[in-house]
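Hi R.,

As promised on Friday, here is the backbone we talked about, encoded as structure tokens. Could you run it through your design pipeline when you get a chance and send me back a sequence?
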């Protein structure tokens, strides 16, 4: 870009930041660069108050996370549900439904899913899996075959392994023993949480953005998805400024405005789709609006 074009770009980014009441210091933290493109040189662990990069693993302990981040536990529960932080959360939700009535314990299910993905187990030959599919199909009016399920597992097991969740070994409500871990780290008994630096960075920056916007966690997540933003960049800030202007003019909630940029939100119990089309208090639900076999 020419000098003049670079200057115009810097001005545009500064204006967008101002529209969201972001100081340049906040803009740098969120996007990783200043208005002039200078990269943020502050290591991620320092944002959490640690002296060394390896120390950030301590954040996986929920008590430590709450203390360092300043968020409430209820907010943490919502954070791990977001598509921004957990883009593959749907795989966990789907498998939970498939095996809801199965007699198998979770570690056994995980092991068999791994065997299916490796080609070492045919789902049709496993009585427990076929029974789980029959129960799911009966409850949901679907017709997922063992072969189709095997294909899905092969395509999505790696994504499922990346899902970050709240884990307590004894399934109690003790925050002192609850931690943030990936599904893979839980079922493969890893020594660490399995959460990558990239995932910690997204958690950190999403939390800051959510607080700055003044929306709910769900609304922030829905809007980022509608804007097609899987990361927070200069483009994200520019688009959010447009949203902010429209929100001021219309007084509509972010979840309603999101449909101006993307598909209607269908994820989770708080989705606008569920409120409009799956609300039994409003009308009899038309089967056309029910989830398909894969959720």
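Update: got your reply. Pasting your designed sequence below so it's all in one thread:
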């Amino acid at each position: 870009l020419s000098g003049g074009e670079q200057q115009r770009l810097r001005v545009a980014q500064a204006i967008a930041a101002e529209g969201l009441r972001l100081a340049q210091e906040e803009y740098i933290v969120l996007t990783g660069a200043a208005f002039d493109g200078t990269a943020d040189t502050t290591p991620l662990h320092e944002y959490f108050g640690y002296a060394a990069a390896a120390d950030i693993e301590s954040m996986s302990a929920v008590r430590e996370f709450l203390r360092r981040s300043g968020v409430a536990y209820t907010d943490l529960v919502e954070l791990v549900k977001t598509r921004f932080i957990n883009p593959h959360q749907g795989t966990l939700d789907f498998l939970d439904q498939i095996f809801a009535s199965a007699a198998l314990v979770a570690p056994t299910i995980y092991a068999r899913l791994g065997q299916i993905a490796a080609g070492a187990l045919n789902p049709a030959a496993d009585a427990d899996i076929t029974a789980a599919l029959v129960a799911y199909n009966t409850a949901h009016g679907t017709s997922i075959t063992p072969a189709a399920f095997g294909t899905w597992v092969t395509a999505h097991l790696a994504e499922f392994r990346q899902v970050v969740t709240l884990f307590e070994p004894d399934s109690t409500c003790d925050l002192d023993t609850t931690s943030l871990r990936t599904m893979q780290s839980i079922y493969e008994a890893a020594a660490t949480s399995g959460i990558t630096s990239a995932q910690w960075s997204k958690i950190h920056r999403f939390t800051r953005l959510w607080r700055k916007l003044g929306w709910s966690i769900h609304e922030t997540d829905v809007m980022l998805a509608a804007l097609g933003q899987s990361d927070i960049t200069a483009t994200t800030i520019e688009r959010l400024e447009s949203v902010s202007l429209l929100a001021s003019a219309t007084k509509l909630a972010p979840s309603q405005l999101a449909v101006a940029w993307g598909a209607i939100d269908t994820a989770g119990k708080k989705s606008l789709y569920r409120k409009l089309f799956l609300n039994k208090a409003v009308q009899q639900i038309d089967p056309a609006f029910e989830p398909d076999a894969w959720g």
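One thing I noticed while checking it: Residues 9 and 35 are 8 Å apart (CA to CA).

Thanks again,
M.
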